[in-house]
Amino acid sequence: MSVLLGEHGVVRDGGLRAALSSVARAAVELLGGPQTALIRECEAAPCTRLYVDASHRRTRRWCDMRGCGNRAKARVRES
């Protein structure tokens, strides 16, 4: 699959099979590479997203601060 910026915006070529192939290739590279130890699951219930913890101290807790992290911190403030 290729993604190009054309005259009328983003142009994708290759279809679903190519897109799934790209996702599978990226997953194999991630799971077989040095970043495997940095894969975490979001701590916010019921979120089950996985992310790569690239934070300086490797202490990231949520997949996204704008969503899961914000809701978790708001719950702590309200209690």
Automatic annotation (TrEMBL):
Family matches, as InterPro entries: ABATE, ABATE_dom_sf, Znf_CGNR
Signal peptide per UniProt: none
Domain Zinc finger CGNR, first and last residues per copy: 39-75
Superkingdom of the organism of origin: Bacteria
Official protein name in the record: Zinc finger CGNR domain-containing protein
